[in-house]
Amino acid sequence: MKKIIGIGNALVDVIVTLPDESLLQQFSLLKGGMEMIDLEKKRHIHQTIAPLKQVRATGGSTSNTMHGIARLGGEVGYIGKVGTDEFGRFFEEDMKKSGITPHLIHTNVIDTGIATTLMTQDAERTFATYLGAASALNANEIEEPIIRQYDCIHVEGYLIFNHDLILTACQTAKRNGLKISMDMASFNLIEEHRDFVALLLRDYVDIIFANEDEARAFTGKEGEAALDELSKYCEVAVVKLGGKGSIANVCGEKVSAGTNGKKPVDTNGAGDAYAAGFLYGLMNGYSADKTIRFAAAVGDEAVATVGAKLSDNQWNKLNIEKNQL
Fold this sequence. Notes:
alpha/beta, 9-stranded mixed sheet, 5-stranded mixed sheet, 13 helices
């Protein structure tokens, strides 16, 4: 496979450092927690933080993974839904600048989704997420002519609650001969939709990514036993073990990789970055061993930086490193 398209929740990450914790109290946000918020609360928070310095970046699990593949030199597209507002325009322009072909659906009745990260002076992060337009993407908006331009589609587990959408995307991809990659994304979603996930893995998914919690939620097993169970469904199965590294079964070949052993600075987006490295390796015909070692190297860089996006220097380092593994 040479070209990959992702489908997921199109979000803009907004990171703000607060002068004190009064805003958290004002909006009844639990420090260090993550709350899903409605439109009114989102607008009120952003009016309040408008005078403060903000860092913006495209976000959402699949978006992060596609961004990584593009920065590594892969040919990438993305399907998502945004509003016809300032943040929707930012999302589209940022994708283009990053070398991703955006296949976005626009709506003028819902605001673009925003994941707001409020950083307090002790570096604790509090999340307020408004899904907005991202959650309004529906099965009828999947365009087959777009899907057939690619060799692989990557879907995020956060779409699992929308059965029609993810099933239509997988059916369209399978009908057009694409490989299907999926990141489980959340153990509680896997527990809630286990039967549906089993159907997806059995009938559609070729490449599955899971962390320890997600693998346990689906298989009831740990480590290599969980990997063996996932391998009964998919030709490529990956289980990420946090600080203990990762293991994979690639078409019957078992491989593993450790980490660089350094203390993580921020694990936000690390799984998305890891998936980018792994999928890039598969796209370019790397051996199973080189694929997992390169994925681990990308993951190591991700946990060494704050936020879900790597710096230009980090991508330059990885682009050199991929030729030396």
